[in-house]
Amino acid sequence: MLLVALTRWSRSPSPELVAAEVQVLAPVLGVGAYELRLALSGQLPVVLLETDDRERATGLLADLRGRGHGAVGCDGASVASSATMYSAKTFGFEPNALVFDCPGQPAHRLAHSEVLALLVATHAREEDSSREVREKKLSLSRAALSGGLVRSKTTTVTQRGSALETERVLYVLSRTGRGHALLRETRLHYTGLGTRMGKSTTVSFNTLTEVLRQLLPSALFDDRLLKQRAASSLQVSRTSSSRTVVTSNESDVDVAVHLLALARLQGQL
Hints:
Elements: E1 2-8, H1 15-29, H2 33-40, E2 46-51, H3 54-66, E3 70-75, E4 86-87, E5 90-94, E6 97-101, E7 108-111, E8 115-138, H4 140-145, E9 152-174, E10 181-184, H5 201-215, E11 220-225, E12 233-238, E13 242-248, H6 250-265
Parallel strand pairs: 4-10, 8-11
Antiparallel strand pairs: 1-2, 1-3, 5-6, 6-7, 8-9, 8-13, 9-10, 12-13
């Protein structure tokens, strides 16, 4: 599947600019004006088109750039997922490289010159569950009708619960397109910071981010993805008496990260 995304406005965005683009793009994309206006009112990058038609994708990309906007296109299969990235538990600093470690895996070394971008984002996972529970309750009416022999009745009650988990992550992207590292705020050990390690994971994560920015001034730094993006990845599990629905925004964030990296490489940010 080919993706075409808007990555930069031709000028400072305004309601008038968005309205003008909606008027032009809605008929081209075959979507409703209201739906498109909502999408374009959010944080860029925004995927405008998903298609197998290469000619259509190329045409839209040229049209967007021709009107002065930043835009990129890619094959969705080329997007690296968080699950395939090196999920570091510890880190260290060499004079010209970053070193990441994870138990059971070889150490991962990334030269400073290879780092393309440092992108901070929020991963969100929401779990909604429902469970049927059979309960016995005292029933005075049934006791009266049965002469006191039956004093309770069994009812089925549905219990519902919901839990939302969010976590900041730092994508350390390689220029080679391989060997990306993913640093998860709550799963990382910060001893590599030495005396700069904070008293909480929040402080330490912030410190690590600043240290990396100072070490890698030529790498793109962007934290726009800290604003939680809507979750679209869906998993449903069932048993005879329960149902759990899990939604995650991780795959959407992965796509946005990939698009920002492409935009950096192609001068479309």
